[in-house]
Amino acid sequence: MKAEPTGKTKKGQPKNTGIRDLETELNEMGINWTESTTLVVTELNNCVMNSEPAEPILSELVSALLSGCRETDTKTQILYGQCLGELGAVDPGRLDFISKSPNAKLASFHPSIDDDDFAFGLINAIVKAFLAATEPRVQDCAAFALQELLQIYNISRQDEDQSLNPSSQLWKKFPEQTQEILVPLLSSKYKLAVDAKYRNYPKPIYGSEKGKSFKDWVSNWTGYLISKVKAGKPCQVFTACIAAKRHNQQVALYMLPHVVLHVLQDGSSEDITELFEELMTVVQHVQMPESQLESISNFHHLIAQTVFSILDYLTMWRSHRMQITTQAASGAVKAAAYEKDAGYQAVHSFLERIPQEVFAKACFNCKAYARALRHFEMFVSSGQNIQHHLDFMQRLYVSMDEPDGVLGVAAVRVSQPTLMQQILTHESLGQQQDAQACYERAIQMDPEEISHHMGLLRSLIDLAQPNKALIHTAGILADRPRWSAQLNSYRIEAAWELGHWDKLQEALNIEKGESSNWPVLIGKILLASKEKREADFVSHLELARKEQIGPLSAASMELGSYHRGYEHILRLHMINEIEEFFKVFADFPEDTDRNDVVIVTSASDLLSNWQSKMEMIQLSFRTQEPILTLRRTLLSLIESERDPYLQTQKGKWWLESAKVARKAGYLQSAYGCLLQASSYHLPEFYLEKAKWLWEKGEQDSAISCLNKGITEHFGSYQDEAKKQELSSSMRQVYAKSLLLYGKYSEETSNLETNSVVKLYRDVIEICQDWEDGYFHLAKYYDRVMNMIIDEKERVEKQGEFIIHVVRFFGQSLKYGNQHIYQSLPRLLSLWLDYGTAVADAEKRDRSKATQKLVVQRTVLKRINKVSMISDLSLRDTEMERYGIVVGGRKISNLRYADDTAICANNQTEATTLMNELNDAGERKGLKLNAKKTNMHIGKEQHASITIGNEEIECVEHFKYLGSIKTDTADCSIDVNTRIGMAKKRMIDLNNIWKDKHIGKQLKIKLVKCLVWTVMTYGAEGWTLRKRDEKKINSAEMWFYRRLLRVSWKEKRTDEAILAELQVRRHLLESIRKRKLSFFGHICRSKCTLMKDIIQGKLEGKRGRGRPRAAYLDNIKTWTRRDSTEIYTMTERREEWRKLVQKAVRAANASRSDAG
Question: Which GO terms describe its molecular function (predicted)?
């Protein structure tokens, strides 16, 4: 098949620029390549570490790298793998992928080839194939496809008259560089010289000579299906690409779901049967147990993933078809309209033939566990007896690392669990010793079953007992050498973990050819580095990366690919660490490839970088333990025993493994790591061992272990002068030891109260900037206060305790925010409750000041002084010097939670206030977000304020606490916005208004409850004008008409609508009542700020023209009183309430007269 040009020639193929060419160009521009690369890597690390969810750019970068794994060129794939490894195995929970959005799939879903987005995506895919072509013949095929597609979709350059060329809108979507490629093809005359004959292709293609590789299968099967599509525009589109898809599998993959859809809709029953058999041949091969043992980069799994993607597309198309068919229908047939649609029925019947159990097992073998669970749930929900399938469900939950699911399966099981079922339960819970006992029993019962021996070896390695695993493997292979191929990988893994290089060499000599087994690959890499075989080291690294790219390219075909491929991303991370380690510690390999860029750092910088990467990895034993094991092995390769620093680091990694295992509940594995760490004599060892003992339930042993560790390592540092000699890291360990000792003593009542308090105070003294010390001391004071103070004498005697609790909770907030959700609420509760109690006491003893009341006032003043609220508040900024003057009072800021409004007279004051606020926040560890800060200035004024290097955006209006504020103090915009939001809510609830089973009176109540509340939010602060009142009345009638489903075309009067519903207009009345009630509440309250703002006047000159309506003008108009009378009447609650009711009735009466 060949496309030959007969008209204009195409552009020349773009020149490929290598990394070193780029480096040369940057150096000529004065940009240092190494410094730039180092800066990029540092910035990427900061994007991950600076916030709990990583920066969005990192998520976009990871998504782009995963998409690149689908490239056909092997070298390109390996480069993408290097980038992912350099980036590290970032915890999926910290990446904000687009796939979390429910509309993510719809963004890439194209229901029809007539869709512009489909044409745009297909042309872009072919343009990429055009640029990537290395042969003229391949580029000609891509050029022919582009030429035909431009004609089929009537795409041309942008004309002056857009109305004559509607397809120019599609042309404008393409970037400029793509348009440059397409321009010559608008008038070219390529033609297809040879046409392929698919009639004689074997069926099924999978497994035949035409499907011996992934590229062959997807290309030939797509071409075969295109030959089954009926004549028409779809056939023209697919045929145009038939030559391009043969040379580029991405083009074939893009078209394949759409081709399958048209075959199902237009093909004969024989065509559909052949299609179904092709899919089933793939799935049945993959679901066989032996396929799980194949190379993870095996192309069979890529083909299976392609099948899964096709089914996903058909499922989405069915749902989309159902939706649009139902919307297009009307009347009684609307609910079942889609059932009469031929296209829907063709796809639906095909999907119903899919055997869910077979697909579940195929997905399980492809490690698509979430998809396997979905298919299995569909299979079980079809009426199957779940008891017959619990084994598969249990294995699925074990693979997903879901111990709760495993326990759930065990609880549902009716029959007595078998030995293997018990093993799965023990392994999922980390009970490796129990699993070992079961394996040993299984071996006694059936010694010729190799899976029992494999399970025992895996259990020994997971329990940090590689020596036993090595001995056991040697014994088995001596007795049964025929099992060497299956068990040799366990011997290799145990050998390199122990650093037994002679035994590793012996085991690797047995391996024949290029093994894809992960432990074998790591063994070959480590041995090559030890023996300084540079060529073998580089080739093994490349092979290891290549083996991880295979499953990543399969996983990247669907959303959620990062979660599914995380195991292989973790391995790429480990490969990158191996490469970094030998370059830094051994300067190996010496001859680095000219196309590689290696940033060489010092040993301390590398270990620090590794620690940072470990903090961003998923927090689980399965992910972190392999990395820690590899790091310990790497140190053993360079004779780290001679370097005390590296030996200490190795011991810390053993303790880190123990910590990860303990937190995962794998106490037996944690104990094995503790035994290894004990030989390094680190002070942290006693901390971790005490936590492990406490987790086991041995509280006394844990306290004894801590006491012994503190005495041994810090017994000579009891004096203040001696404590100053400790390094910062040792002070941290000492403080943690004392804190843990205090916590355990507190929980077991092992020490008296004063001794526990002394321990916590020692912690604060040793580490004065550590949040945990202050937090636990405050918690302990709070606990003691609740225990020793009786409820009757609570207020009188709790004052001294509250001072301590508030002070230390405040100090903990000053040095961190780890416990903010416990510290801040408790601090506020104690402080405000005590203030309320003192205020109540003042009311009771108003006539005389008793001694008890004097003491309470004194305590409250002390609490106010030490309260962290005043420390964290904006008083640090000395804001009282600035601000606008209202009623003789300067107001510089208005605060509600973290929403702060700064008020200033001019730009100078505003700049000073913002800088002081920013500085005060930085002293507390808070950062002011310039992007979320807006500046609003008076009319015809100009100002510019920057925070750091970022300029604050100036806006005409802004939203504060849900209400829109403008420079004219006009509430019309807010009223209109609220009306629009209420109308949207009314439309969203359309199903309720259509429901004939719900009565009109209930619907009216629902409108008031669900719609009016949206509209009247913040209405107490509105200043209403006549036009606003008219809009509110119109909105109320719109709600009623919508409720009755009355169209404006029916020309029914408002009075007729109200009569039918048996209601009167009430919305404006409720807004007036709420505003009047709120005004009375403010005037009676003790909040002087709000009262001053409402009653006071703003200093300065008013502009020319008619005065604007003020907030108080509404109150005067509705009550027909002047301001003096109003303020007097608000102090008398009952009198004001009667006046409010009278004002509302008068307004209704005047409106009725007007009507």
Answer: ATP binding; protein serine/threonine kinase activity
Taking phi first (over 0 means left), then psi (-120 to 50 degrees means alpha), and beta for anything else, what does residue 259 get?
Answer: alpha
DSSP state of 1098: B
Q: State the residue for tokens 């590290």.
A: 88
Supply the DSSP symbol for 91.
-
Average pLDDT for 478-506: 90
- 323 closest CA partner among 106, 559, 119: 106
| pTM score over 0.85 | no
Paired with 966 in beta bridges are: 957
Q: What is the pLDDT of residues 1016-1072, one digit of tens each?
A: 888 888 888 888 889 998 999 999 988 888 887 788 888 888 888 888 888 888 888
Token pair 């410094």 is at which residue? 35
Asked if residues 427 and 410 have their Cβ atoms less than 8 Å apart, the reply is: no
Cα angle for residues 154, 155, 158 (degrees, 5° grid):
130
> Which residues does 936 contact at the CB level (< 8 Å), separation at least 6?
954, 955, 956, 957, 958, 965, 967
| Cβ 74 vs Cβ 574: under 8 Å | no
Residue 436: is it exposed, middle or buried by C-beta count within 10 angstroms (0-12/13-18/19+)? buried
The answer to whether the beta carbons of residues 657 and 464 sit under 8 Å apart is yes
Rg over alpha carbons for the chain, rounded to the nearest Å, is 37
Residue given tokens 């036993």 in the structure block: 468
| Dist CA 279 CA 128 (whole Å) | 29
Beta-sheet strands, E only, within 745-808: none
Q: Residue 1106's CB: how many other CB atoms inside 10 A?
A: 5
Give pLDDT, residue 349.
Answer: 92
Do the beta carbons of residue 462 and residue 478 sit within 8 Å?
A: no
**Tokens (6 digits) for 887:** 């009623």
Q: Hey, is 366 helix, strand or coil?
A: coil
Write out the two tokens for 932.
Answer: 């979320």
What are the distances in angstroms from CA 799 to CA 776, 781, 838, 871? 19, 12, 11, 20
- Measured CA to CA, the distance from residue 564 to residue 554 in angstroms comes to 10
Neighbouring residues of 1145: CB distance < 8 A, sequence distance ≥ 6: none
Query: Cα separation of 275 and 264, whole Å?
Result: 9
Cα 879 → chain centroid: 39
In the structure encoding, which two tokens stand for residue 220, read together? 């030939």
- Phi-psi map region of 367: left, alpha, beta (phi>0 left; psi -120 to 50 alpha): left
Could you tell me if 703 and 748 are in contact, meaning their C-beta atoms sit under 8 angstroms apart?
yes
Q: CA of 500: how far to CAs of 471, 672, 987, in Å? A: 12, 19, 73
Structure tokens at 797: 């005697």
Which phi and psi angles does 901 have, rounded to 5°? Answer: -115, 125
In whole angstroms, give the CA distance from residue 690 to residue 709.
Answer: 9
Q: Residue 746, SS3?
A: helix
Q: Which residues of 229-263 are buried (b: 16+ CB within 10 A; e: fewer)?
A: beeeebbebbbbbbbbbbbbbbbbbbbbbbbbbbb
Residues with Cβ within 8 Å of 230's Cβ and at least 6 positions away in sequence, in order, are 262, 266
| SS3 category, 950 | strand
pLDDT in tens, 207-226: 888 888 888 899 999 999 99
User: Is residue 129 within 8 Å of 142, Cβ to Cβ?
Assistant: yes
pLDDT in tens, 67-97: 888 777 788 888 888 889 988 898 888 787 6
* Tokens 């990543």 found at: 552
Cis peptide bond upstream of 204, omega within 30: yes
CB 85 within 8 A of CB 570: no
**Read out DSSP for 965-1026?**
EETT---HHHHHHHHHHHHHHHHHTHHHHH-TTS-HHHHHHHHHHHTHHHHTTTGGG----H
DSSP state string for 565-598: THHHHHHHHHHHHHHHHHHHHS--SSS--TT---
